[in-house]
Amino acid sequence: MSQTVPEKVRWTTSDLELLSNDEWKRYEIIDGELFVTRAPHFRHQSVIRNICTELQDWSEETGLGEAIPAPGLIFTEADNVIPDLIWISVNRLDRFMDAAGHLTGAPELIIEVLSPGATNERRDREAKLKLYSIQGVEEYWIVNRELQEVEVYRQQNRILKQVTIQSAQDEITSPLLPGFRCLVQRFFRQIGRA
């Protein structure tokens, strides 16, 4: 008696339209695999806001691009993600924006703030790292709010490789962002104690 191996279900962008429209869940597809996450922690969102503010202030001074929280990136039917934050140049924004307001190509910089849990870490450190490498993202920051660190990955031979880990007392810069300088601790500032 032979056993058949069940075929792996491959999700597509079209399938997302059939799922419930629940504002407390985020649906992402990476290489046909569906990832569902619930609404993030309040402090997770404040870190995104802080980073976005720093990048957007620099962007407004230079006019080179824009920092956008939680944009839809539709690379292919099987690769549809919502990163925490991106920075995209004016040139790429004009080229990659579709009629529905989604980006269909890679921004220069993507930032993900880690959420607790092995599945979340695997998604950001493995699946998204691989996807962003393949799609041509030039720089990827993985932000750990618990350790107050930023892991910086840059393209090297068409692969995103870790080049540094910046801690709270370090100043972060990027060759993508000429003149941008920020103390990492500014990403983690908060009001209140939670």
UniProtKB/TrEMBL annotation:
Q: Which Gene3D superfamilies match?
A: tt1808, chain A
Keyword tags:
Endonuclease, Hydrolase, Nuclease
Q: Does the keyword Nuclease apply?
A: yes
Query: What's a Pfam family in this record?
Result: Uma2
- Please indicate which superkingdom the organism of origin belongs to: Bacteria
Q: Name one GO molecular function term.
A: endonuclease activity
Which residues belong to any copy of the Putative restriction endonuclease domain? 18-183
User: Keyword Nuclease: yes or no?
Assistant: yes
Q: What is this protein called?
A: Uma2 family endonuclease
Tell me which species this is from: Phormidesmis priestleyi ULC007
